[in-house]
């Protein structure tokens, strides 16, 4: 016989997985719009708002489950982590919107070199999808992989920052391309951190322990 | 430096831990039935320890071993040692009656002495122990009723029968009766299971307060109650002690699969 709590846990699982997939789509669209120069701010804003409401729904529902069933052990850890993950996914949506907004504020970027952003985008997208999968499969090992990916994201960001600082000293420095890329790299770097936090949460659900840090 | 200091303090704390009750290799028998098996557990002084586990796992048997009540059941016997303050209460030289006085017990169903007044219920044990000074008796009765959080409700009607109180009040009367003997250990076997939520939460608050002066062991079927009132929790199953640890650990991160399943309500 299934516990009543299980029905609630299933619903909360579906909610956060929906959030995960939606946030993944939004970040992908935002990056595509940067690479191809298509304007998608309105759609991405809509999606990011949806994520925000879903996050509130997860928190409300999680609180209700805790109050009603007073779950313990793995059940309680799962509910706590669902709230963390829901927060992480809504943050992805928020950064997707920030990325989409870069072009609106800075203008067309067709002539810019986008190779660094593309490089980091690939890893960041992989990290988002790994964080969603880790939740789906309750894979405690994902967190270590995410940390490793986060290291490479951080190093791309630091390198690019240095590059920009050297470029600014040049006489014919054109800030448009560098500033836009730097902003987007920053958002992606934040996204990777939050993907790591989701991995940590999953590790905590499964083992009851904090994930060992790098 | 700071780290060293905190380590030292930690060690000092560990050393100062005092075990009030040590249960060592205890078996509890009913005739040829071995109801609890090789139980080992140390209870810290002035803490609340909860015994949890499914019906029939041996919680009552174990708790009744702790004040030598188990042996009052015909055919029942105890093997192993139970050390209270360094003394094995099963030593041949020890008088079981004295043990029962030092280690009080509160039962699932409130059981005030039926013919006695509120006052007499609390005073009876004192009189049985040869205390006859009326002033002293009055003082202890008042203090015990206050410590049991019942005084304010009954102070103007101490001479009505104990049985005329509500269930929750009767249970607090039984706690007052146990406290009057100034026990060092208080055993409580499902003390709130026959009470309404308000009566139950009064007892829970009381348990939290009493542990400043008494070591408390409480059997409960209510997992959330164990989580709320106890510092340590022991999980029993089919007469075995499966897991024993800090309550927070047992409820957040039990080590044993069986414990996990029980506390999460996944038992069939
Ligand atoms: N007087 C008795 N004579 C024979 N067997 C007994 C007696 N009392 C208890 N038992 C048996 O000993 C085992 C442990 O019983 P005990 O009463 O200690 O369980 P419990 O954990 O307190 O259960 P509950 O939660 O239902 O109160 C059970 O199998 C029970 O049937
Ligand atoms: Mg019992």
Question: What would you note in describing this structure?
Answer:
The complex is a heterodimer of chains A (214) and B (268). Chain A has 214 residues and is mainly alpha-helical. Chain A contains six helices and no strands. In chain A, α1 packs parallel to α3 (73-106), α4 packs antiparallel against α5 and α5 (142-168) packs antiparallel against α6. The model of chain A has no long low-confidence stretch (mean pLDDT 95). Chain B has a domain at 19-112 and 173-263: Rossmann fold. Helix content of chain B is 40%, strand content 25%. Chain B has helices at residues 2-16, 59-65, 96-102, 118-128, 134-147, 151-154, 167-180, 197-210, 223-229, 247-252, 257-263, and strands at 19-30, 33-44, 48-52, 76-84, 87-88, 103-106, 185-189, 215-219, 232-237, 240-246. A six-stranded mixed sheet of chain B has the order 6-7-8-3-9-10, with helices on both faces. In chain B, strands 2-1-4-5 form a four-stranded antiparallel sheet, with helices on one face. In chain B, a hairpin with a 2-residue loop joins β4 and β5 (87-88). In chain B, α4 crosses α5 (134-147) and α7 (167-180) packs parallel to α8 (197-210). Classes of the chains: A mainly alpha (214), B alpha/beta (268). The A-B interface holds A 1, 3, 5, 70-77, 208-209 and B 223-224, 227, 251-254, 260, 263-266, 268.
Map the helices and strands:
The complex is a heterodimer of chains A (214) and B (268).
Chain A: H1 4-36, H2 41-69, H3 73-106, H4 115-137, H5 142-168, H6 175-207
Helix pairs in contact in A: 1-2, 1-3, 1-4, 2-3, 3-6, 4-5, 4-6, 5-6
Chain B: H1 2-16, E1 19-30, E2 33-44, E3 48-52, H2 59-65, E4 76-84, E5 87-88, H3 96-102, E6 103-106, H4 118-128, H5 134-147, H6 151-154, H7 167-180, E7 185-189, H8 197-210, E8 215-219, H9 223-229, E9 232-237, E10 240-246, H10 247-252, H11 257-263
Parallel strand pairs in B: 3-8, 3-9, 6-7, 7-8
Antiparallel strand pairs in B: 1-2, 1-4, 4-5, 9-10
Bound molecules: adenosine-5'-triphosphate and magnesium ion (MG).
